[in-house]
Amino acid sequence: MMRLIFNDQTFSFELLRTLSYSPYGGADIGECLSTAYRIEEGNFDSWYAEWRKTAERMHRLAAESLDRGNRVSAREFYMRASNYYRTAEFFLHGDPQDPRILDTWCKSRSTFREALRLMEMPVEQVDIAYEGTHLPGYLYLVDETTRPTLIIHGGFDSTGEELYFEVVAAALQRGYHCLTFEGPGQGAVIREQRIPFRHDWENVVTPVVDYLLTRPEVDATRIALMGISLGGYLAPRAAAFEHRLAACIANDGLFSNQFGEIGRKLHRGNDADLNDPVYVDRFIRGLMAHHTGIRWAIENGMFTYRAASVAELIEKTEPMTLEGVAHLIPCPVLVCEAEADHFFAGQPEMLYEALTCPKTFMRFTAEDGAEEHCHFGALQYCNHRLFEWLDQTLCVKG
Q1: What is the pLDDT of residue 289?
Q2: 152 close to 163: Cβ distance less than 8 angstroms
Q3: What is the DSSP letter of 271?
Q4: Cα–Cα distance measured from residue 181 to residue 154, given in angstroms and rounded to the nearest whole number
């Protein structure tokens, strides 16, 4: 793994993630490094406090720039403030009632929307009808012409605002309209509406496609879907049943995300013990006490699935598999793999082998500087390769 400031893998990776948005306006290198040096390693509250300080500083500078009429500077400060507020909130989910969660996340969203108002391109905040409520999204348009359109959603912990830095900016540069949205378990949908993750993601994506087909700017024959991180399971699951998609990108590929299976891999005792919920809870919480990555994954899992216990989290994630589903996907699929992925090791190959549609396997390596999960640290290179594949698949001229 890349080690950046921290020896702790989880802290190092999340710093890399935040820093990786620098090329697209979401971070500045010195700001990130100086913040990281102030953080006590492994301390979730210290992480929150220091990133919050940096975010608030950017927020103040944005307001001051706007007061002086410096719209470009204000937009840039608001963008970075949004990403830093997101980073500050990241480790807070151990207590779903913690008031810092909603306050900090809301500031991440509001500063991003302040930045959008200062953009030169048309961006719309949209509400997509969904099962008696709505899914929040952003529609980014290159111009008013009809173009191929990329739907983008995140995964286990990302927000709709973050997706701009990760993919949208690169897509717009290449002539794609983009629609990002947050589904159940994500962003505003879990924090404000309290709707948890669901495994049958086609019921989420189909209303999104329905909405896009009402827009004259969208080429209905060239709608692609990209899912990131856990989205590497969710997007292929949707593509198996939503056949109006012309292409699907799993970045990175994920065949299953069953917490029970993960627990079995970590367990070295009698497998029969794993049938005892009390034992499982004690075993997992023992791991959480000594491993920040496991602690964060369980706490965020219970938060996003609205599970009251580890046993309930295991039960709720049991359907999260593409077994018996992957072969139903008809459109071309790109499966990405990160050489040193500490989350999805072996999973992209499992997904690729299960596919029967036109398929491409794309490996990112340490030689590329892109070996980390979702290729953080090399987003420009990653987007270069992803969009070359998408251009070719959708017959888009560069």
Answers
A1: 86
A2: yes
A3: G
A4: 8
Rounded Cα distance, 333 and 381, in Å: 19
Domain edges within the chain: 1-120, 123-257+320-398, 259-317
Q: What does the alpha-carbon distance between residue 240 and residue 223 come to, in Å, rounded to a whole number?
A: 15
Q: In what order do the strands lie in the sheet with 247-251?
A: 123-130, 133-140, 177-181, 147-153, 218-228, 247-251, 333-338, 359-364
Residues 6+ away with beta carbon under 8 Å from 364: 336, 337, 338, 339, 370, 371, 375, 378, 381, 382, 385
How far apart (Å, rounded) are the C-alpha atoms in residues 199 and 234?
7
Q: What is the pLDDT of residues 326-343, one digit of tens each?
A: 999 999 999 999 999 988
Is the separation of the CB atoms in 266 and 258 below 8 Å? no
Give residue for tokens 């983008």. Answer: 152
Which segments within the chain are labelled E, that is strand? 123-130, 133-140, 147-153, 177-181, 218-228, 247-251, 333-338, 359-364
CB distance 311 to 218 below 8 Å: no
Q: What is the pLDDT of residue 269?
A: 65
204-213 in b/e form (b: 16+ CB < 10 A) is: bbebbbebbe
Model confidence band, residue 398 (pLDDT cutoffs 50, 70, 90)? low
More confident call, 26 vs 282: 26
Name beta bridge partners: 151.
179, 225
CB 236 within 8 A of CB 248: yes
pLDDT above 90 covers a percentage of the chain that reads 88
Nearest to 311 by CA among 347, 282, 269, 288: 282
Summarize pLDDT for 19-50 with one digit per residue, the tens.
Answer: 999 999 999 999 999 999 999 999 999 999 99
Enter the tokens of residue 329. 């996907």
**Annotated active-site positions, please?**
229
| 1-120 topology per CATH | de novo design (two linked rop proteins) (1.20.1440)
CATH level 2 (architecture), domain 123-257+320-398: 3-Layer(aba) Sandwich (3.40)
Please give the single-letter amino acid code of residue 320: M
Is 137:180 a contact under the CB 8 Å cutoff? Answer: yes
Say whether 233 sits in a helix, a strand or coil: helix
Helix (H, G, I), strand (E, B) or coil at 242: coil
